[in-house]
Structures are given as C-alpha cells and as structure tokens.
C-alpha cells in the first residue's frame, strides 16, 4: 500500500511539472511550432485531406457500383381478377372472380452498374484535381498568414518587454531626481515648481509602466493563441528585439525579382479561373448522351405464410443485362441559358485575374517601399536616440549644477522618452515590413 501511494505521488508531481513546462522559442522555432499547432493550420490540413477524399469520391462514381435490394410484401387483401366463366364450364358472358398468386412475397436481388460514357464525369475528375490544387494553395496562404501573425505577435512581446525595462530605468532615474530636488527645496535651495515638474513626469512614466506591464501579459497571451497553446501557458522568448531587428535588415531582399506565379493570391485566383473554365465545360457536356451498362440477378419466393427461411421454400431466379442510353434532345433553351451564364462567369474570372495581377504588382512595390522606409526609419531612430540621450544627460548635469531649470530638464526627458519609444517601434516595423514583403514574394 505504501509503495502504491509513493508511485501515485511521483506521478502526480510529474504531471504537475509537465503542466508548468515552459515553452522556449526563437522566432523561427515559434513559426515552425505554429505551423504544426495553430488552429487554422490544423483545419487547413483537414481541408486538404477532405479535398483528396472528394477527388476519390468523384472518381468512384465512374467505377463499378454494386447495390443489393431485399423486399417483402404481405397482401392483406389480395386483388381479385375476373375471368370468363366459360373457361371453367360456366355460362358464356359471365365472369368468375379469381385470386392469382400467394399473399406473401420475398425478393432479393443485386445489381452491377458501370458507367460507359458521361461527359460530366471527365469534367468532374478535372474539377476535383483543380480543387485539390486550390486546397493546397489555401493551405499555403494559411501558413503565410500564420507566419506573419507569429512574427507580429513575437515582436509585440519583445516590444512590451523592452518598454517595461526602459520605463523601469526611467522611473528609477526620475525618483532619484525627485528625491534630490525635494531635499533641495526643503533646505531652501530649490523651487517648488521644480518638484512639481518632476512629479508630473514621474506620474506619467508610472502610468505608462503599469500599462506596459499589462500589455506584456496580453501580448504573450496573444502569441500563445497564435502558437496554438493555452494562452496562460508559460512561454519564454529566446531572442532580443535589437538583435532580431538587425537580422531582419536584408538589403538583398529588395533586389529579389517578383515572380507573379509564386504569389499565393495569384495562384488562388488562377484556381478560380480554372474552376470557371471547367464549369463552362460541364454545361457543354450536358448536351452529350450518357451510356451506362447494368446486370441484375435476383430471386423471388411466394408463400401463404412467412416461412421464407425454411429450406423447403422454392426460390425462383431471374437475371437481366442491359444498357441505359440517355440522349438530351430539347430543354426549351434551358441548357443554353446555363451555358451562357457559365461563359459570363468565366469572363468575370478572367477580368478578376487581370485585376489581381495589377494589384499584386502594386502590392509588391508598396511592400518594398515600406520595407526600405522602415530600415531608414530604424537608422534615423537609432541616431536620434543617441542624440536624445546625450541631450538629456547634459541637461541632467546642468540641472544638478543649477544651470538648467526643471522645465528644460523635463523637455529633455520627454524628448528622450519619445526617442526611446520611436526606436523600439522602428525595430518592430523593420521586422513586420520584411515579413510583408516576404509574403508578397512568397519568400520564406
């Protein structure tokens, strides 16, 4: 009993530790994990499997089909037929009521059918293949969207973390300044306005810090959601925002040639065009005849009572083989109207394809411009941060020496805080804009 209790406790502790296991990810590891576990990725894989099953479902309609039928009838009141009475030696011109057959009947049969020709079947096979390509392209688009979502969520977590660290540092500096200024004011060596200016700045920074701490938890939950794990699961990011931003600066990406056929949106619109072509073919095929072959074998038994499972009941066999030829002759122009509608849908798809080509070219140029601009903004923000730090440091020294007012110090501090946030945001923009360009190029 004691050993069982010990084993139970060990298993319970192991289970608890497993529940608290921390997930650790670099950006690429997070992307790979999400591609396997994200909810949309899982369903996109199921859609692809469903399309493959649907293809076989279509193919199977043209293969041999075997069906079986079993029927039982009990005529509670059998139908009466009249026969001339003279057949039984009666008076001519009169009739005798007669009941033919037995009231209970059982029948069992099997039928084999084989499609010999159907134009819509050929089109259906082509459509099934097109649908599989569409599902594959849709899965690819889903993966690209997941990749983009992971990058954005990962960057936001790092941004929130860096913001918290910077705001804590700024708050510590302000608290030190406020404490020193209060002492100077209490000793009659400073002005009350200086204390109030620092209190205003400190209150603002304190509120921003509280908000950033909340955002840090929320952004981590959003990342977990994209990854496909419990939003409250402990997750640790293994990369630094600055290092990650540096890795994303790739001027060579701006020289990458845009190949329209690689873009997943173009692939999907092309699939739509192909589907409309096949729909037109399908309507045209409706004017063609269809030919099917069949062979049937059955057995029937008759009885006055339900004794069909007895060995002495006689079963009468029957079999038939034949062909079914269906020839469409006249539909009051209904088929013609459907064909014209399919032609209109094809023309619309062709126009949409042309429009998509132009939109994607514009999207590529825009994404490339935005990525280049984000790199330029990053470099500028980095330089401005260095300048703002030096300006704030100089004003800090001047203030301590009585050569600068609290208002001038507050201005320098506010400028520094803005420069810090702009620098952090510029790094996130580099990461996100690079991903946008990669999505257009379908470059992983």
From TrEMBL:
- Keyword Transmembrane in the entry? The reply is yes
- GO CC terms: cell outer membrane; efflux pump complex
* GO MF: efflux transmembrane transporter activity; porin activity
Its subcellular locations are: Cell outer membrane
- Which stretches are annotated as coiled coil? 339-366
Q: Which domain of life is it from?
A: Bacteria
Q: Which UniProt keywords apply?
A: Cell outer membrane, Coiled coil, Membrane, Signal, Transmembrane, Transmembrane beta strand, Transport
State the signal peptide span: 1-18
Name the InterPro entries for this protein. OMP_efflux, TolC-like
UniProt xrefs under Pfam families? OEP
Assigned protein family: Belongs to the outer membrane factor (OMF) (TC 1.B.17) family.
Q: What is this protein called?
A: Transporter
Q: What is the lineage of its organism?
A: Bacteria, Pseudomonadati, Bacteroidota, Flavobacteriia, Flavobacteriales
């Amino acid at each position: 009993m004691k050993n069982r209790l010990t084993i139970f406790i060990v298993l319970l502790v192991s289970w608890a530790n497993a529940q608290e296991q921390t997930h650790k990810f670099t950006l690429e590891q997070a992307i790979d994990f999400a591609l396997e576990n994200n909810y949309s990725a899982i369903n996109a894989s199921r859609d692809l499997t469903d399309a493959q099953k649907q293809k076989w479902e279509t193919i199977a309609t043209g293969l041999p089909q075997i069906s079986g039928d079993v029927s039982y009838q009990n005529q509670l009141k059998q139908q009466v037929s009249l026969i001339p009475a003279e057949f039984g030696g009666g008076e001519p011109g009169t009739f005798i009521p007669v009941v033919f057959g037995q009231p209970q009947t059982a029948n069992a049969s099997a039928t084999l059918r084989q499609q010999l020709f159907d134009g819509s079947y050929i089109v259906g096979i082509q459509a099934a293949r097109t649908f599989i390509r569409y599902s594959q392209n849709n899965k690819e688009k889903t993966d690209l969207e997941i990749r983009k979502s992971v990058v954005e969520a990962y960057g936001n977590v790092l941004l929130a973390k860096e913001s918290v660290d910077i705001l804590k540092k700024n708050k510590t500096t302000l608290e030190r300044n406020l404490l020193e200024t209060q002492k100077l004011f209490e000793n009659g060596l400073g002005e009350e306005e200086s204390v109030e200016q620092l209190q205003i700045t400190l209150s603002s920074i304190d509120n921003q810090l509280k908000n950033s701490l909340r955002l840090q938890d929320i952004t981590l939950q959003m990342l977990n959601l994209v990854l496909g794990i419990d939003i409250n699961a402990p997750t640790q990011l293994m990369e630094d925002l600055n290092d990650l931003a540096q890795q994303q600066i790739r001027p060579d990406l701006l020289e990458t040639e845009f190949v329209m056929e690689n873009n997943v949106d173009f692939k999907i619109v092309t699939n739509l065009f192909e589907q409309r072509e096949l729909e037109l073919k399908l309507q045209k095929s409706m004017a063609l005849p269809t030919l099917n072959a069949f062979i049937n074998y059955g057995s029937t038994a008759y009885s006055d009572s339900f004794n069909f499972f007895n060995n002495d009941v006689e079963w009468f066999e029957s079999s038939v083989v034949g062909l079914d030829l269906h020839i469409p002759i006249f539909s009051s122009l209904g088929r013609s109207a459907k064909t014209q509608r399919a032609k209109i849908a094809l023309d619309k798809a062709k126009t949409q394809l042309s429009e998509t080509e132009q939109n994607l070219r514009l999207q590529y140029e825009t994404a490339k411009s935005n990525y280049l601009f984000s790199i330029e903004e990053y470099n500028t923000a980095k330089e401005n941060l260095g300048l703002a730090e030096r300006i704030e440091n100089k004003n800090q020294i001047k203030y301590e020496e009585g050569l600068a007012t609290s208002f001038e110090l507050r201005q320098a501090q506010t400028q520094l805080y803005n420069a810090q946030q702009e620098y952090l945001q510029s790094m996130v923009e580099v990461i996100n804009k690079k991903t946008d360009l990669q999505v257009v190029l379908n470059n992983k």
